[in-house]
Each structure stands twice: as C-alpha cells, then as structure tokens.
Design brief:
The complex is a heterodimer of chains A (about 625) and B (about 230). With about 625 residues, chain A is of the alpha/beta class. Chain A has helices at about 5-10, 45-50, 55-65, 80-90, 115-125, 170-185, 190-195, 275-280, 290-305, 320-335, 350-360, 375-380, 385-400, 420-440, 470-485, 495-505, 515-525, 535-545, 550-555, 575-585, and strands at about 35-45, 70-75, 105-110, 140-145, 160-165, 200-205, 210, 220-225, 230-235, 260-265, 265, 285, 310, 340, 365-370, 405-410, 445-455, 490-495, 570. In chain B, about 20% of the residues lie in helices and about 35% in strands. The chains are: A alpha/beta (about 625), B alpha+beta (about 230).
C-alpha cells in the first residue's frame, strides 16, 4: 500500500493532522525520478518546532534551487502519530512526496539541542534504518548532521556518517554536487565518504578512532585514513550580503511556535560571554546591511502574507544601523498591517521608545537577562551588564507602564557562592521597591525570576569546568525559592535538574555515550526536551546497563592538557584563547567587546573580522 | 462599503486544517495578492472577514462561504482570479459576488446545510436502506444525548425537527458502504451536527462502523431570504 493511502486512514485519528500532510505554500514540487540527490532535512522534534527554525527555511530554499537536488522535510511524529505508525506499519516519511526516508540518498539531521538526540535514534528506527553507520549497507541513505551540537559530534559519531560544521550554505551545495558525481561513478559508499574528507567543514568520524587511558580520558585519536584532515575546520560564509536568503519561505497551515517572516540581521556576536557557545562558535560577526534586510523583509512579507515580522541575531541592538533599521521596518510594518517583533533587545532608551510604540496599550512582558546576581559573578562570565544598567532600565520600564518583568539567571556558574544567589534575590527586591517608589503601589506588578542550570559546553572558556551536582542545584533552587517567596509580586521558576544533567553529559560526551543513548531509546526515551516526556529514571537505567558513568562527563573537572573529544573540531577560535578566557574568569576579570578591542580569539586568522575595534 | 462573498471548496489534504487555520490562510492570501481588507478600529485591529459556518476538521466541502470587506472597490472577477492563482491544492474559489451594504452577516442568515456521509459498515446491512430511513423518521421523537458545554452535563434532546431532509443509498455490492445525504438545521438559531445523526441513525439501525473511516462532505449552505 502506498504511504499516502495508509496515511489518509490515520489522519482522522491524530491530533493536528496537518503536521503530516505537507502541501503548504512555497514547498518544492519536483519529480523524484529526475533527481540525482534526494536529501531529507530531518528535524528531530515536532513539525511546529521545526517549522519555526530559520535554518530549515534557508537550507530548504538553497538546496531546492539546485536542479539535481530535491530537499524534502522530515519531522518527528508526535506520540499519538508514532503509536499509530507503529501499529499500522507506516514508516517515517517525507512531507513532500510521502517517500520512505529509507529511499532518500542523504538524511540530514539538524542538531539544535542535546536533548533531541534520542529522537534522532527513534526517527531512524521509524524509518527502518539501522542506528549505527557500521550496521548500514548500500541500500541505506547516508546519515548526515549539522548545527551547533555538531561542534561536539562525538556522542553521535557511531550514528552519523558525516557531520558538516559551521555555516551550511556553501558546504551543503558542495556535498550534494559531490554526491551526484559519486552516484554517477557507481562506486561504493566508502569512496564517497573518503571524498567528503576533502571538503572543508566535513567530518567523517569513521576515519578517526579514539584510544583511551585507564582513567577513561582520551589518550590519542588515531587517524584511519591518511588523507583525512588532522583537524576539521568549520565553514564560514564571509559575506551575508551576497549569500542567498529565502524570501519565499514555507508558510505552515497550522500554527507553528513562531509564525512569522524573519530576517537574520547578523551572524555571530562580539560580546564574548564566557558561558555562551553560540557566541564562540558563530564568530566572527557578519552583518547584513539595512537596505538588504529591508529588501528581504518586504519580499518575504509579499511571498508569505505573514502578519508578523521578526529580525534575528544573537543580540539585536548590536547591529551597527539598528536605530534607522528599526524605524524603517516599523514603517514597512505599519503600511501592511504587520506587527513587528524585536527579540533580544538591549534595554536602552531607544529600545524603550520603540517597544512602547510597537506594543502600544497591550504591553507584553519585558525580559531582562542579567544571568548572574552580583557584579563579581557577571565579571566572571563576562556579561557586561552593571547594577546601574539593570535598575536604570527597570525605572524606565516602570515609568512607561510595564507591569510584567521577566528576569533570567543561571545557577551553577563557575565560582558561584550563596552571596551571588542573595544577589538575585536582592535584584528582584530592589525592582519591586523601584516600582513602589514610582507608582506608589505594590499590587498589579509581577516579576518572574527564571533560573536555568548552567551546562558547560564544548568550545567555550568553561569547557573544562565541572557542572554542579544534582544536590548542589537543588540546594540552590530551594535557597532561592525560600527567599523569593517572601517578596510580594515575585514568582520563581527553575529548570529541571535532571534534564540539565543529561544535557551536560551529551554536551561534552565522547563516543562511548552513544551506547547509552541507543539503550535509552530502546527503553522508551524520546522528546527529552519536553518536561512532560523526559524520563530520567530510564536514562539512568540506560547508563547503568551500558556501564557508562554519566558523571564522568557532567561533573568532572578537566585539566588543560587533557585531550577533549571535540579537539579535532576547529571552531575557528584557538584553545589558547579559551584557556586565557577561563583564567580571566577565575580571576574575575572582564574582557572587552571585540568592537572595543580585539581579544585575540584567533578567528581573524581565518577570515577578515570587520568589527574589530569599531566602537 | 465594499462587501463581498466568495464560495469555495475545501478538499483533499486541506480538510485536515482547522477553522482557525483556514481563517489565517485567507488573511494571508489577501495580503499576498495585495487586496487590502478593511480592519476594525480599536486596540486590537482585525480584518473584517468571517465564514458563514465553521467546518469541522476532517470534513471536506464543496459549498463554503466567506464574507469580507475591502478598503477599495475591486471587481469581483479579479478577486476570484487572484485568490485562485495562489490557493494551495485543495481549495478552489467557485464564485465571488458583491454583497449589498448593511444587512446581516452570513452567519446570522445561515439556516440549513447539506451533507453527504459515506459510511463503511463493519457488517452488511440486511435491510433496505430507504425503508430503514423511513422507520427512523417515523419515530415520534428522535432522542439523542447532547453534551452541554456550560453545565458539563449530557441532556436529551429531540433532533427530529432539525432534520429537514434525509435519504440513503448503498454504494457497493455487499451492502457495506452506505451514503446518507441530509439537509440539517444550521446556524445560530438551531444547529444539528452530522455527527449526531450518524450516531443516532446507526444506533437505531443497530449497525457498527469505525468513525475514522467515515467521510463527511458539506455540499451546500442555505441562507434565509438572500
């Protein structure tokens, strides 16, 4: 029976059936029989989440511009659909042509967060594809992966045939072109994998074998294929102005998490927060010009009919033309009955003016992320916000009528003490006092203090530091809870400790954690990023059964001379720079924004760094 | 005032999108083809556009109606061509007409709707379907349990007055595929969901079926005096 017919019988029995139908505006229609490279863009979470991811739109758009390539979408089915697919024997399929994923040439997963890894294994299972590269044969597609978590590829090294590191725009085209030539040549899979090692940014894990010391650390990494590079350097798109950006993005029928036109205004970040992986791996800062952004925005609104426009970057206010840009975008939006959404704005007077204007009477909450409670700890993590910044912006916000304030902090940061937690409480308390001083009232004013657990990530200055133990996290959560509940109008929430622990294991795991991952999937773990689906006991069971100690990865301090599993990935910044930054952190010394002064991360040895010293 | 009504069909995969999804799709369609809808005034402006009757998710239809107002006058034929040029597979605009000023909304004027229900039965029907329908309609009252959303209770109602027409045919050789065609009260005054007649009729006939295999299509909506 054809998948379409099988599917039709199931759709009336599942929630949000349009997750599985395809056929949305701006989707690609091609004849698969005339295609050389059938590529599946696989997002290991549900449709609504995947469709909100800009990277999907970019890659879908650029691959489908190629005549010889057909890029189709694959998402993780929700639990109700998965259950039916299993009982009815319906394999995982692509939305565009309802083909089995097994029939594709390349199935490429995007790795956005570690807790989606179990869904990758589950999707392979649903597709009838063996989990490990070594178990697959010539009838199976190549399994590829990219995205931020590919910067420590090792936990998935046994599963994924090849990783693509860094910006995908150029390398994907190159990989598909090579695939087409390889396919014509009729040679075996091994040949393609060997050829791939010659493309910059591609890591083929089977050509490298780690050897371990008795204490479990890595002794050395042996190369099995002479021509494979010693280190795999990430890809960098040097000029955002000329690189292709989708204007005719796919418009979901059902509501996605973000249902809007979106333009990336720059890539990278010059601030150098020491905990932030994105700020390290996406260097250097590359801007799109104001005029180009406006042109893309207008075209996108035209081609999608979206009612909301958003701009995307790691720190919106840092765009060099931000004020005129926002003003001009506001004008475009007003003319078209479109609302403008400006995420991650620095709360300065310009932002308040803009926010007041676009939000008008219905002011939504205002979000502020000091990340740490004291100046000392903010110096450690290099978050350049001062107490004065916090209170001054809160004064302005309250004067302008905001009554809902969200504050984001992390706990478990290196060198943290209970004084730093007191600092969080104090900030919340002081803001309620500011509100009382300005409005004369204590009611109808809410502060939400949201605390996440620090997870040390690869390629950051904190890649060597231990994560807090579950007990330490819990003690800190209770400490804050006890103190914050005494302040009227303050509510407190925090992330689950257990999920943060698992995230830490996979963020810095090596090849050996893969067996625990596969075991966890077999025990029923999936959708671990969803609080209601995360099953910690099963994870612990999986680690016990496979004889792997999760704490070796999560809470062990590494020495500078240890070989780290991700050492063969070159993110463009030097290990020496990361060490220096970690030392500075321990001494509580801040490093300047790259725009003030170059701090020698090393990226300018790879490409031209245009923002150096521009402030 | 520039007020229009379009009649359209919703079939194929598009029957899996909800009423609200469809409303969003139309809003975006107007934006894409550059037809400016009139927006309401106030803090939360929204375009003046509404369906005559919501269509349940999963139903197909060849008789849906959408009314809307535009800021400037546009020839009805132009609206039809423009919207059809961008509609995804599954929606086809069948006609577009200008409405007179004022007057009630289509939703307020809705009186009846036609449906076709094709029902694969689990066992063959051993009776003549027309006779069965006659017997069904000859009951003094046709009582069904209706769930009251407000009170949360199930109450018994008589749906007989809400059934305007009902007919049935057998579509296959084994008496296992039945098609019911019904005209039911619809709108804000009195409304009968085809789901109710489906359960009520087959309870009466003592026949079983799988709801997931039932295919329901709305074929027309009738309005009072218009």
């Amino acid at each position: 029976m054809k998948i379409t017919e099988q599917l039709d019988k199931l759709l009336m029995r599942v929630e949000k059936p349009a997750r599985y139908t395809g056929g949305e505006w701006n989707t690609a229609k091609k004849d698969p029989s005339k295609i050389k490279t059938r590529f599946g863009f696989a997002f290991p979470d549900t449709y609504e989440i995947g469709m909100s991811y800009l990277g999907l739109q970019i890659i879908y758009h650029l691959l489908n511009k190629e005549d010889s390539v057909y890029c189709e979408r694959v998402f993780a089915p929700a639990l109700d659909m998965e259950a039916l697919m299993r009982t009815e024997g319906l394999p995982l399929f692509t939305l565009e042509t309802k083909s089995e994923v097994k029939d594709l040439d390349i199935l490429g997963f995007t790795l956005q967060y570690e807790l989606s890894f179990s869904n990758i294994i589950n999707m392979l299972d649903l597709g009838g594809i063996p989990y490990k590269s070594s178990e697959r044969d010539s009838g199976d597609p190549f399994i590829a992966a990219g995205g931020p978590c590919a910067f420590n590829p090792e936990p998935l090294a046994d599963v994924v045939d090849f990783f693509m590191l860094g910006d995908g725009e150029e390398v994907l085209i190159e990989v598909c072109a090579l695939h087409g030539r390889w396919k014509d040549s009729g040679q075996e899979k091994e040949v393609f994998l060997k050829q791939l090692t010659q493309i910059k940014g591609v890591y083929v894990p089977k050509f490298y074998s780690p050897v371990y010391n008795d204490d479990g650390t890595i002794k050395e990494i042996i190369k099995n294929y002479e021509q494979a590079p010693d280190m795999v350097e990430k890809c960098i798109v040097e000029d955002l102005e000329t690189v292709d950006f989708p204007v005719n993005s796919i418009v979901p029928f059902i509501e996605a998490v973000h249902d809007r036109a979106v333009v990336e205004i720059f890539r990278g970040c010059s601030r150098g927060c020491r905990f932030c992986q994105a700020g390290m791996i996406y260097r250097p800062v590359r801007e799109r010009s104001k005029d180009k952004i406006k042109e893309i925005a207008a075209q996108q609104l035209n081609a999608t009919g979206h009612e909301e426009l958003s701009i995307l970057s790691l720190s919106t206010s840092d765009h060099s033309e931000i004020e005129p840009l926002v003003k001009e975008l506001m004008h475009i939006c007003k003319e078209n009955n479109v609302s403008l959404s400006l995420p991650s704005l620095r709360l300065d007077s310009f932002s308040f003016k803009v926010l007041s204007e676009i939000q008008g009477y219905k002011k939504s909450g205002l979000t502020f992320a000091p990340e740490a409670g004291t100046q000392r700890l903010r110096d450690v993590i290099n978050k350049s916000i001062t107490d004065h910044d916090i209170y001054h912006s809160m004064e302005q916000a309250i004067e302008l009528g905001w009554t809902n304030i969200k504050l984001y902090f992390m706990v478990g940061l290196p060198t943290e003490t209970f004084e730093d937690l007191d600092g969080i409480v104090e900030i919340a308390k002081n803001i309620t006092d500011i509100n009382y001083r300005i409005t004369g009232k204590r009611g109808r004013f809410n502060i939400t203090v949201s605390v996440s657990n620090f997870v040390p990530k690869a390629h950051t200055p904190f890649q060597w530091v231990p994560q807090n133990t579950a007990e330490q996290f819990r003690e800190k959560h209770y400490y804050l809870k006890d103190r914050l509940k005494k302040i009227k109008g303050v509510s407190f929430n925090y992330h689950g400790t257990d999920a943060s622990h698992m995230e830490a294991v996979f963020a810095r795991g090596d090849r050996r954690v893969c067996d625990a991952l596969i075991r966890a999937k077999e025990l029923g773990c999936k959708f671990d990023g969803w609080r209601e689906h995360f099953q910690y006991e099963l994870w612990i069971k999986a680690f016990q059964e496979t004889g792997i100690d999760p704490d070796f990865y999560a809470i062990r301090e590494r020495s500078y001379d240890e070989i780290l599993p991700w050492d063969l990935i070159d993110a463009g910044i030097s290990k020496k720079f990361l060490m220096t930054e970690n030392n500075q952190a321990i001494s509580g010394v801040q490093s300047p924004d790259c725009r003030v002064q170059c701090i020698g991360c090393g990226i300018n040895e790879k490409v031209n760094c245009t923002k150096e010293g521009t402030l | 005032m520039n007020r229009y009504v379009i009649k359209f069909s919703k079939e194929g995969i598009l029957r899996y999108i909800s009423h609200l999804d469809l409303l969003r799709l139309f809003k975006r369609s107007f934006k894409r083809v550059g037809i400016k809808l009139l927006y309401s005034q106030g803090f939360n402006p929204h375009p003046k556009m509404s369906f005559a009757q919501p269509l349940s998710l999963g139903y197909s239809s060849t008789g849906e109606y959408l009314e809307f107002e535009t800021t400037t006058s546009v020839p009805a034929g132009e609206i039809l061509t423009k919207i059809n040029s961008i509609m995804p597979e599954g929606i086809l605009i069948l006609s577009c007409d200008e409405l007179t000023e004022g007057g009630k909304t289509l939703a307020a004027l809705t009186e009846y709707a036609d449906y076709e229900l094709s029902i694969p039965l689990e066992n063959s029907l051993d009776e003549n379907v027309k006779e069965l329908i006659d017997k069904y309609m000859h009951q003094e009252q046709i009582k069904v349990l209706k769930h009251q959303r407000k009170s949360g209770k199930d109450i018994e109602i008589d749906i007989k007055p809400l059934i305007s027409e009902i007919d049935g045919t057998i579509l296959d050789n084994n008496n296992k595929l039945i098609m019911l065609t019904v005209k039911l009260a619809a709108g804000s005054n009195a409304n009968l969901s085809p789901e109710m007649i489906l359960t009520s009729f087959f309870n009466f006939a003592e026949m079983t079926y799988d709801r997931a295999k039932v295919f329901i299509k709305r074929t027309e909506i009738y309005f009072s005096n218009n």
